[in-house]
Amino acid sequence: MPILAQEPELYPDNLFDAIQVDTAQDRQWFAVHTRPRSEKTLARRLARDDIWFHLPVQQHQYRTPKGRKCTSYLPLFPSYLFIYGDHTDRFRAMLTDRIIRILEVPDGEQLTFDLRQVQQALESGATVRPQSKLIPGAQVRVTSGPFENLEGRIVKRQTGDVLLVAVHYLQQGITISLEDCQIEAI
User: Fold this and answer.
1) Residue limits of the NusG-like N-terminal domain (predicted)?
2) CATH number, span 126-186
């Protein structure tokens, strides 16, 4: 079975910039709960059908039983993908038969902010870890380094402090290891 190259996780490539200049009032975010292991297949189909989407993926390196190094790109939030479109796009996405349900997002601005932060963290190349539940903590802003201006909550861990960048709608997020001198309270 051939190993596929990394596929686009944003369509169009400038999705977040396009959202800022998009004047169509009928476009909104939809959180798509996909069938198991169907996120990338759905993303390919959405791109082919010209439906805007975001599928955050993370690089995963592993070795085969014979010792060969392999790289794959796994969804950061398994079984979830985000569509930015109107109800016609929503309907066309449902026709793919890869979707369990589509949920409307009540606060699209917050989701845009959250997804943009997750994307910035992924693009930095740092190791991020998915977190399935949000944990209460101090709200902070990163003051220096590749994550400068990211906002999130500090989560105390046994290995030190980490920043939790949340996608509030899913009640999930990612964590990034930071030093105390890199953050300030908001």
Assistant:
1) 28-103
2) 2.30.30
